[in-house]
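Table 4 source record.
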Amino acid sequence: MAWVDYFWSAYDTAVDLTANMLNAAGTLACVSGGVGFSISYLSANTLNVDYFGETDATGEVILSMELLQLLLKMNETIPFQEHVERNGEATFHLSDYLHPATIRLICGGLIASGTVLRLLGENIKLWNQGRIDKSRFTDIDSPSIREYSLVSAKSIFGSISYTSLSSLITGAVINSNTIDLKSITYPARGNLHALSEYYTGPVNNFSIPIDYDFSRNVTFKWSDIDVLTTISAEIVARFNGTYGGGLNLKPPKDGVNAPTVIPGIIGVGALVACSIFNQKAIKFRDERIHGLVADDESHVYGQIQNNT
């Protein structure tokens, strides 16, 4: 029946999709574990945050007071000019927040869980492939324990290769200083540069004009006379500011580089082993199918000989 065929087709697709998702999640976990293992060597470094900022404020305050009944008026202008500058450096020891052993323990958990997920996904895929083969070739044998072992070995060595090669690439990038944290500044670039003791990178500047005035009427007693007084003030000023900051990652004097040789050897060896086991697993399945086809052909040939 057509609906039965649709059902089994959808079932096969769902199982394959589940296996592929497990495989992808496991691969991602293994790669993350390998990357994290190399990054753990950065936790012995010291992160310095340099900053600089200055503000110039210039302007004047104009005060005015008028006593209407007494016909008195007073004006006063107060100029001002202020300069404020702040620069410094904050130091953070990364090991105080993430110890290398803790990072490597987390990475070990990621690698182990990723290996299990990939192992489960590959075995589910093989089981589903065997079931599909069984529906197409009724007399075909199911995948043997040897075939499951080969697929499992392929999956395990694949996990090792993903972990080792991702660790190799990350370690090589870290050791070569391709990512220079000294260049991480805010702003990233600019025409103006600070010349302070700590920060000498590019800076942003801003200007804020201020023009504010207010007036108040106040009445007070003066020799039994209610004197109406008008008090007013006007502030005219401009604030010019400059600011910037940057990151600087400093390795310890006795620091150790992230390993690259050993992960490279392990990764390449595991990749070769994964390819060998994969070819053997494919060969086992081909032999099962070819053996069944050969048996069918000999059976048909025998029937033809008997009929003649």
